[in-house]
Amino acid sequence: MRTGSVPLTDLAGGFDLQATLESGQTYLWTREDGATYAADGARGGDAWYSTVVDGEVLRVRQREGVLDWESTTDAESLLFDLLSLDDDLRAIRDAASDDALIREAYERYWGLRIVRDPFFGCLVSFICSAQMRVARIFAMQEALRETYGEEIAFDGRTYHAFPTPAALADASEADLRDLSLGYRAPYVVRTAELVASGELTEADVRREDLEATRDALKGYVGVGDKVADCVALFSLGCRDAVPLDTWIRTAIDEYYPDCAKGTYAETSRAIREAFGPNAGYTQTYVFNHLRSQ
Predict the structure, then answer these.
(1) How far apart are the first and last CA of the chain?
(2) Please, is 289 exposed, middle or buried when counting C-beta atoms within 10 Å of its C-beta (0-12, 13-18, 19+)?
(3) Phi, psi angle pair for 53, to nearest 5°
(4) DSSP letter at 257?
(5) Distance CA 160, CA 148 (A)
(6) Which residues contact 39 (CB under 8 A, 6 or more apart)?
(7) What pLDDT does 34 receive?
(8) Which of 17, 138, 228, 260 is a Cys-bridge partner for 217, taking CB atoms 3.0 to 4.6 Å apart?
(9) Distance between CA atoms of 109 and 92, rounded to whole angstroms?
(10) Which residues of the chain fall below pLDDT 70?
(11) Residue of 193, 204, 146 whose CA lies nearest to 166
(12) Are 210 and 240 spatial neighbours (Cβ–Cβ below 8 Å)?
């Protein structure tokens, strides 16, 4: 076992692990006490969380001003990448718009950072997200990992990697429906086939700007504008992406009515401008704030 810790005072703007991992932006981490997404408004906790990336197990918790980690490898650089610990939160906040809603959201969840999830797991989890609460989405991804993911032994426990594209491409729609994927089952199978065959890969959807990336992502089955923006923001590093989900549309109706332009693309451009630079960061804070009021 490899272990280490990161002093939170070394991170520009600090860090809140629970707010980051229980804010609806990732379904690839497991809270080891089984209480992931059990409470709205989650922040400031000291639970252990785990994930598997490229065959390596990583466990992490926050306590007493440090971020502790345990892993099958020297994981500090991996941790910085997955949790965006190198982002300057103060600079991001200072550059964002400063109306009352945004101030409240940043103050309440200060330390929340945008994740950089592995592409395929992020893609599948957000395909599964349509019309589902976050706890149900997480349960689906956990079922996929335990059924189709590689088993990895670590510290006396068995962990499961997210399934490979080939593993899900070989799954039957009926079996995926049995894991509660419902009508999303054929979407997941066909999308996995596209990735596994090389027909449409992560490299193919990485474009120079957000709108081109969004359009490319819609080549996957079951991916519309909102899911594409989620993958762009939470995996591909498009920090200007603002997924227009129910909560952000509520914010537009109540706080930014001039941003309602009729089409997804036009409304997206307007709310991104209203939120300011790194609009995806502001979106995630506002989403979490409104969802847990």
Answers:
(1) 40
(2) buried
(3) -135, 125
(4) G
(5) 8
(6) none
(7) 86
(8) 228
(9) 14
(10) 39-41
(11) 193
(12) yes
> Which residues 6+ apart lie within 8 Å of 31 measured at CB?
21, 22, 47, 48, 49
Q: Are 114 and 234 in contact (CB under 8 A)?
A: yes
Check residue 42 and give its pLDDT.
77
Q: What values do phi and psi take at 30, rounded to 5?
A: -115, 130
The Cα-based distances of 169 to 124, 202, 231 in angstroms read 12, 16, 20
DSSP letters, 122-174, are HHHHHHTTTT--HHHHHHHHHHHHHHHSPEEEETTEEEEPPPPHHHHHTS-HH
Q: Where are the beta strands (DSSP E) in the chain?
A: 2-7, 30-31, 49-53, 56-63, 66-71, 151-154, 157-160
Q: What is the pLDDT of residue 134?
A: 80
3-class DSSP assignment, residue 84: coil
C-alpha 126/C-alpha 217 separation (Å) is 12
Task: Tokens for 90, please give them.
Answer: 């103060």
Yes or no: say if 92 and 284 are a contact pair by the CB < 8 Å rule: no
